[in-house]
Hints:
The protein has helices at residues 33-37, 73-79, 82-91, 97-109, 117-122, 130-144, 154-180, 193-202, 213-225, 233-242, 248-260, 267-280, 285-293, 314-329, 335-348, 351-355, 362-372, 380-401; strands at 4-9, 12-20, 26-28, 57-60, 65-68, 71-72. It is mostly helical. It has a three-stranded antiparallel β-sheet with strand order 1-2-3. A three-stranded antiparallel β-sheet has the order 4-5-6. A hairpin with a 2-residue loop joins strand 5 (65-68) and strand 6. The N and C termini lie far apart (56 Å). S-citryldethia Coenzyme A is lined by residues 45, 229, 232, 263-265, 267, 292, 300-308, 356, 358, 361-363.
Amino acid sequence: MEDQIDLIYQGKSYKFPLVKGAEDEAAIDIKTLRAQTGLITLDPGFKNTGSCESEITFLDGEEGVLRYRGYSIEDLANNSSFIEVAYLLIFGELPSADQLDKFEDEIRDYALVDEDFKIILKSFPKSAHPMGILSSLTSALIAFNPSSVDINSEKDFHEAIVMLLAKFPVLASWTHRKMKGLPLNYPNYDLSYTENLAHMMFKMPNKDFKPSPTLVSALNKLLILHADHEQNCSTSTVRMVGSSHAGLFPSIASGISALWGPLHGGANQAVIEMLEDIRKDGGDTKKFMAKAKDKNDPFRLMGFGHRVYKNFDPRAKIIKTAADEVLAELGIDDPILDIAKKLEQEALDDPYFVDRKLYPNVDFYSGIIYRALGIPTEMFTVMFAIGRLPGWIAQWKEMRFNKEPIGRPRQIYTGYTHRSI
Length: 421
Ligand code: SDX
């Protein structure tokens, strides 16, 4: 591959270096474009624009490949714990047994949140969307832990990472309990990270609760599958906010808000609502497929399509298999799973979807498992956020440690030229 590219503009030739990635992706380094030519690039949605170089996650959208630090998502989902994957994403290597034990103990030690968080939680109406509550509570963490922004001190930064991983599932489960009008559960130090999440979400005060292996295994797999996904909308938001040297906690709070959107992480909730609408409408999937293809109809087939994957989302394949396994183990026959499979098959045979390379993405089947596990629809995107937290942390850490400049895109102005009052 050449190491530079020529640009001819107004009769002059300009040279720009080519940057080559570990998997042979190539980019034009345009850091000097405006200085040399006076030109900028324009790319709404950044469909063709790389924002950074990163060592964390690799996606091949054409081949449907996803790897965290070189390990395939299939291997990690089937062989690792969520906390092992979190460690891998954040620190770059899978932990040894001792490193994992220490990391899990550190997380246990930070798992209690200030009791005053209950006052903040109490101020929200039960009808509040849990993503709004979670974003607010995460921002509030900075008020109760002011020391957690100094990344120059390895110790302080490590403490901020562990604190966030420890407290986030507590805040998320308390958000769920608040919505349901249920008493709040504290973390149980004898349980694993994922067992604790289940415990805090589902333990009722009037009876014993032991998280079932099916529940824990499904949650563990779903959290791993959502853990990172290179420069998606919410991760780019976390990097952008962090680039102004805002702290880790407010940067993550911004990522939660970006993830909330139905075109992004909010799609898992929108998929179930869509499948329920189809079921209530009599299950006529062809009618909804026609709506999805009608340019005059704002309806989209939620859980379908992806900015990067122009092949199957590898996570969707794993989740689809897990959905069958979990529902079978729980003895649940959920009609909306059949509707989902029917929609998928029809889309795979439909030129509109085939021509646009629209396949099921991570959100298409995940809600069916969450629903089978007894998690309410409004909480689905919170579950996505719990999974994505280590990826957000890892990406924020990389951006800050690489001393990347503050993010500040240019624009092409198309408004009025100067005019007098
Ligand atoms: C996530 O980026 C990530 O990595 C995100 C994520 C992660 O892990 O972080 O993977 C998580 O956000 C998954 C995506 C969840 N969103 C949805 O399921 C919402 C439904 N999907 C879409 O709205 C859409 O596919 C996006 C937002 C996911 C991607 O949009 P793009 O890349 O901007 O593509 P586009 O909107 O330009 O669509 C290209 C064409 C258009 O038709 P034409 O104008 O060419 O005729 O495909 C059509 C679109 O109308 N299209 C759809 C469609 N998705 C795209 N038509 C019907 N139903 C859909 N779902």
